[in-house]
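Predict the holo structure. Ligand: magnesium ion.
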Amino acid sequence: MIRLEEITLREIRLPLKEPFRISSGLVTERRIMLLHLRDADGTEVWSECVAGETPNYTAETIDTAWYSICEYVAPRVLGIPFAHPSDVHPALEHNFRGHNMAKAAIEMGAWALCAQRDGVSLSRLLGGTRAGIETGISIGIQSSPAALVERAGRAIAEGYHKIKLKIEPGHDVEFVRAVRRAFPDAPLMADANNAFTLRETDRLRELDEFNLIMIEQPLAFDDIIRHAQLQRVLKTPICLDESITSVEKAEDMISMGAGRIINIKPGRVGGFTQSRAIHDLCVANGIPVWCGGMLESGVGRSYNVALASLPGFTIPGDLSPSARYWTEDVVTPEWTMSEDGIVRVPVDQAGIGVDVNVARVDNLTVRTQSLRAQ
Ligand code: OSB
Ligand code: MG
């Protein structure tokens, strides 16, 4: 049983080692919400809310999520007994629209609490079967094709199994072509974060010649119908990210042929219960899935790694090691990647598998708020 006694929200600031530019925005320093959850039986865990700084990915931001957790999410869980963590999601959906990342921060924390208390890894509690995850990197938009070739080359040398190139109109065909010419056999993909419309269909079709594993979310964030139109004329598989906010959206994608691959980010879909349902649906329909990232700290990363250990996650995840993002992470040990591009799943430890460096988090904290059961 889970019965949350206290939820503490913290905002920390963590500068990225290299600026991260996508078609819809630029981040140089992350504002990250960490949460500390304490159960009535004394069990404690950390979780992370993956909402960004601005509403350029989904409508949520760290500020809307902070408000939403305090006003709407926490009151629905604090002091309330849940027999199983999968019961939290329905309690957060009833007459409560949207705010998936706010909900997920608590829902995923409930899974971690359960794992921590039962002495099992979060991976195994979720049904994970892998001991290691093939790792991909997401490379932001660069100033020139040559700069992108240089950055991608470094990533390939580091052993990454999937190289995702962020694109937008004007930073698209020539950039991808340059990387493909330099690395004829590299596992490349592109992510447009909604930057195109069907008017640019011919441009997108030019990408077909580069043997990309997939093109992620070329069209609008909430549009399944036009992705279906586009997929009919594209050879490259479309992968949906922003558009998949629930298992029903995943069903729509499959039935309409709007894409052939799904990027599952647990924050975007409201937590692990929905993530697992989407995973199971995709396995049943022969749709490969992979775990995306939101430039998480080592806390959020542990949740992604656990999810990516499920059997249907057959494509490398955006789970780069701590050192790709930060001078110093907030967890011990930091997340590392082996020379052959594998992130190890901490299956031998209870809970999320890393310790939070509380003194460092204290130093980085710019605001905090505690909520308790009545
Ligand atoms: O579209 O996958 C995306 C980061 C922020 C917002 C959207 C996206 C991303 C990434 C980052 O690609 C992947 C990572 O965390 O390494
Ligand atoms: Mg994406």
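The chain is about 35% helix and 20% strand. The CA atoms of residues 244 and 250 lie 6 Å apart.
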